[in-house]
Amino acid sequence: MLHPLFIPLFMAVFIFKLNVYPFTFYTDKALYIVTALTFVFNIITPVFFISILKKAGFITSLLLENRKDRILPLFVFAMLLYLNAMISRKWELPPLWEVTVLLTAMLTIMTIAISFITKISLHLTGWGGLTGLLIVLISYYQADYLIPFTVVLLLSGVSAWSRALLNAHKAGELIAGFVLGCLTIAGGLIFVISLNRA
Q: Running DSSP on this structure, what letter comes out for residue 144?
């Protein structure tokens, strides 16, 4: 569950479980719909696509350890996130969810660009993004998420420790991933919220 593919699911749960206006108008049915949508588009489909690429010889590892192996799968993941956001808009789900998904797509595109230069940690980028979301939900929506926030920070640490233990990344790549994810999601949401409140 520490894999970055699961991060959009966690984001959906945190957003749709907000017990503040306007989220109180959305029932658990909306969460089930978004969870199913996210599970299909952002977990099942990417895993299937990566498996096909591996069998076809386009990538060397299912774990995307090589920088060049990441580019096509990440691009597809970003497009699937965009599709998720567009469907969410059509179904008139909370704009905060749509913006968060679009920012996650943008963050994914940023990791593609960075992958041409260095091997930033995708795991920590995802956990950083989730941390950024929680910071915004706590600060702007007064969400009672201090315990989940603490858990997410601990899991981020566990993820960083495991990646370092496996020699998958250097410390700088782990830190850079977390900071990039946190600043992109938190900064983007704060910007959009500020525009809407102006």
A: S
N- to C-terminal Cα separation, the chain: 38
Q: At what angle do helices 67-90 and 28-39 cross, to 10 degrees?
A: 150
Distance CA 172, CA 178 (A): 10
pLDDT tens profile 26-72: 767 788 888 898 999 889 999 898 899 888 887 777 667 778 888 99
Q: Over 70: is that where the pLDDT of 93 sits?
A: yes
Residues found in the chain: 198
Flag whether the pTM goes above 0.90.
Answer: yes
Q: How far apart are CA 138 and CA 49, in angstroms?
A: 36
Q: How far apart are CA 34 and CA 93, in angstroms?
A: 9
Q: Which amino acid is at 9?
A: L
Give the number of other Cβ atoms within 10 Å of residue 133's Cβ: 27
Domain residue limits at 32: 4-197
Verify cis geometry, omega within 30 degrees of 0, for the bond prior to 73: no
**Cα→Cα distances 180→107, 122, 150, Å:** 8, 10, 19
What is the count of structural domains for the chain?
1
The DSSP secondary-structure symbol of 96 reads: H
